[in-house]
Design goal:
This protein has two domains: 121 residues, Aldehyde Oxidoreductase, domain 3; 151 residues, TIM Barrel, CATH 3.20.20. The chain contains eleven helices and twelve strands. It has a six-stranded parallel sheet with strand order 6-11-10-9-8-7. Strands 3-5-1-12 form a four-stranded antiparallel sheet, with helices on one face. Strands 2-4 form a two-stranded antiparallel ribbon.
Length: 286
């Protein structure tokens, strides 16, 4: 599914971030910078990457001071080389300085996710595999992080626990006392979940994949499965269910996983381990 980034949601997230950083004002700026001093600042990329979050950064400056004039020079999703200026902001220097860190935090983090996602997408180019994210996100930032994944060319997995049935190993462990196995769990979820909702189940072996397929699972997640067994499952399923590879996926092995014939490859590292893109703000006092 694709989840649009809505203005009200961005306003709320930015507002919470500013409340955290400006809870007691900015004592340094207020002590040193005259309120009437005006100038201009440039937002500069210091490492090659993919830009994401430019409108989020703009919202930070708007909330700090609506009189600031923010101009985006590059759109989200663009590949940006080291040295590119992606935006400028003009107005009161005190306001620019107060907004600087929060704006850069969002821009660096989201651009880092988009950049990492693009690397995975490029790595599986030419195969049918689609790169997706997971729910391994920073609490409170999931909407923005999943937006950044889309910006980098990836796709979103579940947004939240109500966004699809995914039967995992711990669900099955919890059901063992009731003598309910994998196949019966899939059937029970199908009966009780909202109509038309996809049912996905996590498996760790070819045998479990067969059981999930026989029970009517729509998506079968191959958890930490080696490529040889993935190929066996692909041959077994023959398109009767979507196959998702998950667990232990890296840039070193993602191509071989894609070539095994799976439909989806979910990568937690896109959000929980992406390196922030180095971006700075440089001021030019007027």
């Amino acid at each position: 599914m694709v989840y649009p980034l809505k203005g009200k949601q961005v306003e709320r997230i930015v507002g919470e971030a500013l409340a955290e950083d400006l809870a007691y004002g900015d004592v340094t700026t207020e002590a040193l910078v005259l309120s009437e001093l005006k100038g201009k600042a440039a937002i500069l990329v210091k490492r090659d990457g993919v830009l994401a979050g430019i409108d989020v950064a703009k919202e930070v400056f708007r909330q700090v001071d609506p009189s600031l004039r923010f101009k985006a020079l590059v759109k989200d999703g663009a590949k940006v080389p080291k040295g590119d200026v992606v935006a400028t902001v003009e107005g009161k220097m005190a306001s620019i300085l107060k907004a600087e860190r929060t704006a850069l935090n969002f821009l660096q983090h989201l651009s880092g996710i988009a950049t990492e996602t693009a690397r995975y997408v490029d790595a599986v180019s030419g195969t049918k595999a689609v790169i997706t994210d997971t729910r391994k996100t920073i609490p409170g930032l999931r909407l923005l992080e999943k937006y950044a994944v889309r910006t980098g060319g990836g796709h979103n997995h579940r947004l939240n626990l109500g966004d699809g049935v995914l039967i995992k190993d711990n669900h099955l462990a919890a059901l063992r006392s009731s003598v309910i196995g994998l196949g019966e769990a899939v059937k029970k979820a199908r009966q009780r979940a909202p109509r038309a909702m996809k049912v996905e189940v996590e498996v760790e072996s070819v045998k479990q994949a067969q059981e999930a397929l026989s029970a009517g699972a729509d998506i079968i997640m191959l958890d930490n499965m080696n490529v040889k067994d993935m190929r066996r499952v692909v041959k077994l399923v023959q398109g009767r269910a979507l196959l998702e590879a998950s667990g232990g996926i890296t840039l070193d092995n993602v191509r071989s996983v894609a070539e095994a014939g799976v439909d989806l490859i979910s990568v937690g590292a896109l959000t929980h381990s992406a390196r922030a893109l180095d971006i700075s703000l440089e001021v030019e006092p007027g």
